[in-house]
Amino acid sequence: MKIRNLLLAAVAVSAIAGTASAAVSVNVTSYFDPDLLPTGQVLLADFNDPGNPEAVLLAGYTLQLNGATVGVGEGDAGYSGTLPNNSTNYLTVPGAATATFTSASGFKAFSLYMGSPDTYNSIRFIGDGFDETVSGANLFGGDSSQDWNWGARVNFSFGGAVVKQVILSSGANSFEVDNAAVAAVPEPATWAMMIMGFGAAGAVLRQRRRMVGATFA
Q1: pTM score, two decimals?
Q2: Contact indicator for 159, 25 with CB cutoff of 8 Å
Q3: 106 neighbors 164 (Cβ within 8 angstroms)
Q4: Tens-place pLDDT, residues 158-178
Q5: DSSP classification of residue 12
Q6: pLDDT of 115-130, one tens digit each?
Q7: N or C: which end of the chain has fewer CB within 10 A?
Q8: Do residues 131 and 100 touch, judged by C-beta distance below 8 A?
């Protein structure tokens, strides 16, 4: 890694440590690797299909684009800064545009590979009794130099709250991200199956104890 990149990483960690919202915890889990996900998270959207720009990879989730663009690639000309070490298409949210992820069951953590964070970029997290917004101005200290060499996996967690909607927006051109990932909340049916499984395991253990007691009586 170049010394310049190391310095950028150090500055980013320092800025992120002081997130403005106590309800949203933020940490960088990796640098310059768009494919490395945090432990326990799965890929939600890779933004690789311009023909189906609102495609998601997980059932129960939706992506709605309002002016945002899928299909921008590294080195493309235009209003979008490129994402370092990112060889695939990604999502660009220009000024006055939004990209909204929604899940009925919700999730407990969310992450993105981000490039060139700016003061006018923002992410809003909405859940039951939960509504918090973080921005480039108070989360990253803002990248006023528009440096396109910054790239990191940024992870957001919510202190036990369940978030059901994430809205990416930007006040100007642009907000660039790739490979959105989530740590999902298990569906009620999944919890029921787990509880039944624990109950069945306990019943088997109790039966074995009774059988052992009968053998040596």
Answers
A1: 0.77
A2: yes
A3: yes
A4: 999 999 999 999 999 889 999
A5: H
A6: 877 889 999 999 999 9
A7: C
A8: no
